[in-house]
Specification:
By secondary structure, the chain is an all-alpha fold. Helix content is 77%, strand content 0%. The protein is built from four helices and no strands. Helix 2 packs antiparallel against helix 3 and helix 3 runs antiparallel to helix 4. It is flat.
Length: 141
């Protein structure tokens, strides 16, 4: 290798290293807060009532547990669009179940009103996803 070739090689290698470091730093800057938030949520065991929670919180936890169980055990098709629609139906049904628990056990009129609005909105979105899935059938793997 000549001196000029060596300089080009070193210059290209240095540029790649700098670019790689910049990309890594950017990814860490973006992912860092999410990772910290995720780590913070890891200590919350949603399968058990909170310390101050009474029996009225049990339906809320039961609805969350059921939603998570259904979504975790859902057979994926390998089709991103279909899998998204299926998962969103389960997710929205979980929101409906939680809102229903709020209506049945909540005391605050504003929270009960919000729960009713959530149920109406989530039912519309579920209907949209189900209509899309019916138009785009895809066999499960």
């Amino acid at each position: 290798m000549t001196l000029t070739t060596n300089r080009r090689f070193l210059s290209t290698t240095a540029a790649k290293l700098i670019l790689s470091a910049a990309v890594s730093a950017g990814a860490l800057a973006v992912a860092g807060p999410a990772l910290a938030q995720s780590a913070g949520h890891a200590q919350h065991d949603m399968s058990k009532p909170a310390h101050a929670a009474g029996k009225t919180s049990m339906p809320m936890h039961a609805s969350m547990d059921e939603m998570q169980k259904k979504m975790k055990n859902m057979a994926m098709t390998g089709n991103q669009d279909m899998d998204f629609a299926m998962m969103m139906v389960g997710h929205h049904q979980g929101a409906i179940d939680m809102a229903q628990a709020q209506i049945e056990h909540g005391k605050d009129k504003q929270m009960i009103s919000a729960a009713k609005k959530i149920i109406a909105a989530q039912k519309k979105e579920i209907a949209m996803f189900e209509a899309w899935m019916k138009k785009h059938p895809h066999p499960a793997k």
